[in-house]
Every structure is written in structure tokens, then in C-alpha cells.
């Protein structure tokens, strides 16, 4: 025990606390490591061990996940400052049917998950991040960081983003990173994972759907698909259609700003953004 790293110590504590056995590492992110574990012969469970110094966002997301109470999201059984013990789900992601020609089915499922996540509940976590703060990268990026031919797209998206926040709206707890590959199939239906824990306009929750799933650029850049998504979400969720498209366009540009910051390609966002801006103008 004396020679263990902080992460190993956190894993050991969690295994003892919840009487877990057979911790098999499944995936690692910059902020956590996910293990598949067993508990007294019951069904497998998931254990997320948070990395030292990188765990604030994960804790916030874990608290929101627990608040959902298993409705539209994986169930959290218990948590500590450095670990989250939760339901094990190993089904396919919602990105799979979308990539395999069943996008309308995926869109219906996406909307249903949002309905469940946004059900009124008491006592929301208190440290959720304001949505406006999440958009800082969009509003603070230097336009010169964008390709010369796309700077007008960036400027228009900034204007739309500012307009979204200038108009008062309802404020609810938001997953904040809901996309097709953050929704998994299970015996209980489609379940969201990995929330960011934001607070803001409910319409933003569907924005990520317009530039996802990854690996389906022909689909996401189809103006007909953009219209179908906006129609479906407006009808199912009661969201304003123009506002849906406004947040979708602003988020696509925000996503591009993050990728520019990280040195990644923004080709995917640039394929979609012009069509989102056109759809917004026409809505």
C-alpha cells in the first residue's frame, strides 16, 4: 500500500468500500479510468476512478448522473470524492444505428432520452456550470485562428450565439455533452453517460446531435437531415425550432473553436455549419 500511486490507492479504497472484486480496466480518459468490476456474484458493475487534480468536472457530472436517478441515464449506486460506482452497460451506442442508415430511429431515441433527462426533479446539484460559461471559447477565439474562407461563418455563428443568450429562457440542469456515442443501449433502453453538468437553456441539449455521430459526415452535412432533426426535436420536446437551429449553429462553431485550440481538423464542423446557418436564417 505504501508504494501505491494516488490512483491505485483510490482504486483500492473503492474496492474495499463497495466489496468489489476483479477490477478490469476498460477505458482511460484524461480525467478518469473506468473498470468493470464484480460485487458478491451479482451482475457486473462499473467503477470510475477519478484522477488526482483532474476530477472536479467528473465529480460534477457524477452528481448530475446520480440526480437523474437512472431515468434516461446509467444508474449511480454510490460515489465518493474520487470514485463513482454505477451500473454496467456494454451495449452499442446510438451512433451505430445512425451510421447504419437508421438515423430517423436514432433521432427518435435521442429525443426520448432528452425527455427523460429533463423530467422535473427536486434538489438539483448546486455547482452546475452556467451554459454561457461553456461558450467562452466561441466568444473569445481570435477570428484569425479560423481558416480565411470560413471567418464569415465564425462571425455569423458568434452573432447567433450572442442572440441566444440575450433572449431570456427557461433554465434547467443540462447533460451538456449529449451526443450519439454518449448514449448506450441497455436492457432498460437507451441510457446517457458522461454528463458535463451545466445549467442553461434546455434547447441546447440537442445541439450536439447536428454534428454527430462521428464518422458520418455525409449524413450530418445533409440539409434534409438538419431539417428532420429540427422538426423532430421541436415536435417531441416542444422546443422553438429556430432556437434549436441557433444553438446547433453556435455549438458547431464552438466545437470548431475547441478543435482549433487542440490543433485538430475542423473539416467536419465546416461541412455542417453553412447548412445550419442557412437553416437558421430560413426558420
TrEMBL record:
Biological process (GO) annotations held by this record are:
secondary metabolic process
Q: Which UniProt keywords apply?
A: Transferase
TM segment ranges? none
**GO MF annotations for this entry?**
phosphotransferase activity, alcohol group as acceptor
| Entries under InterPro entries matching the protein | Kinase-like_dom_sf (IPR011009), NH2Glyco/OHUrea_AB-resist_kin (IPR006748)
Protein name listed in UniProt: Phosphotransferase
